[in-house]
Amino acid sequence: xxxxxxxxxxxxxxxxxxxxxxxxxxxxxxGTDVMVLIKKxxxxxxxxxxxxxxxxxxxxxTDNGLRIGSGVTHSRIxxxxxxxxxxxxxxxxxxxxxxxxxxxxGTVGGNICNAAPSADTLCPFLVFDAVVLIAGQKGxxxxxxxxxxxxxxxxxxxxxxxxxxxNLPALGANxxxxxxxxxxxxxxxxxxxxIAARIDIDAKGxxxxxxxxxxxxxxxxxxxxxLEKERFVCNDARIAMGVVAPRPIRAKKAESxxxxxVISEGLLDEIGRIAASESQPRDTLRGEAWYRREMVxxxxxRAVLMALERMIxxxxxxxxxxx
Amino acid sequence: MKRExxxxxxxxxxxxxxxxxxxxxxxxxxxxxxxxxxxxxxxxECGACTVIVDGNAISSCLYPVMEVEGKNVTTIExxxxxxxxxxxxxxxxxxxxxxxxxxxxxxxxxxAKALLDKNPDPTENDIRVSIAGNICRCTGYVQIVESIRxxxxxxxxx
Lengths: 323, 158
Known about the structure:
The complex is a heterodimer.
Chain A: E1 5-7, H1 12-21, E2 25-28, H2 34-39, E3 47-50, E4 60-61, E5 66-69, H3 74-78, H4 81-86, H5 88-94, H6 100-105, H7 108-114, H8 122-127, E6 131-136, E7 139-144, H9 145-148, E8 149-151, E9 154-155, E10 162-168, E11 175-182, E12 193-202, H10 210-215, H11 220-229, E13 233-242, E14 249-250, H12 252-258, H13 265-278, H14 289-312
Helix pairs in contact in A: 12-13, 13-14
Chain B: E1 3-9, E2 12-18, H1 24-31, E3 50-53, E4 56-59, E5 72-74, H2 88-95, H3 105-118, H4 124-130, H5 142-156
Parallel strand pairs in B: 1-5
Antiparallel strand pairs in B: 1-2, 3-4, 3-5
């Protein structure tokens, strides 16, 4: 391995200063991508600047929304009961990235900055309208995640800038979310397709304890029928798709087709079909384009269903249900 | 450009000179000659190099040695007692045929130890998740899961 020097700054400011003065320097966080690139000789830094010891990057703040420091590991996110219950799609994503060993060191900032088309956290961040907090030369600024992602392994960061964290807005009272990672095996995998969905239901005109009737239903088709019968309307929806384009993308037409409509099985099928038509997958070793498109159809419907189910069980301890 | 780092290795404080571009695995195997942790894939996919750092199972092949400063590292060499008595996990792997070729074994045991340290009463699913990053090409995992389950039982009852 080619030699490099290794620096461990304690503050963002110090790290950015090092980046501007050291030759051939790269930032490293958990290292699960950077160290692999170095070993494969795709990256040959002269200096590595570690972001691992910067305490101002390691916060999880759950007051009015959710704010996560970029240095927080996937394991720490998956251990948060608050995130599991309220930002379930993000919980789904981080609890199945790589392996325990990867999740124990890999960071959320690393996942979004590496910006793989298959990056698991990106679909959830897209459906939660996440905002990326960036420390730049002229101070701190924010960028919507949709604008932050430029292409495969490309993000809107200028040289030396550091992602400080990611902010997720507060959710509506009747909302649920899910992320489905479609894989050949259960762990240590990249998705063939990844689908995240978030749905908010308008419960105006329904009794305060409307969820009770639904909680007694085990069968998801029965739940859907009751939603349709009681004319529950989708207030707001987001659907994001991974590995079907150069970067994870939102299925905006499918989202608008859900907006303001009464939830029904037929509608969800239609949403899946629209999302599939918005995907632009290609043939790769991991899966062929036609198959990916088919799976977008199936999984979009399933992700919205899971989101609905979780919305109903939002206050119960078994949320997210593992269905 | 050697640097000196100090950390705790298997309950012993040590100070060593390292090159800043080494990984923890390189230090363990090539310098300290502790060859329990194996290099399989070298890119964090096989788990043969698993050791425990501050309570967490990690792939030592991807762990920059400079990050070990001040940390608490446990390797397979640190599991048995001084008199040679094996750790219940090690004993259980022997008794339940959790070992065939042995290449994955130290990583498997370290992943299992990290699990049991945090969760002494794991479900079968917890066990399977904990070793999902450890590849074994011999056993089919059944005896390994069994070894861990029985070790957990034994450790609970002592």
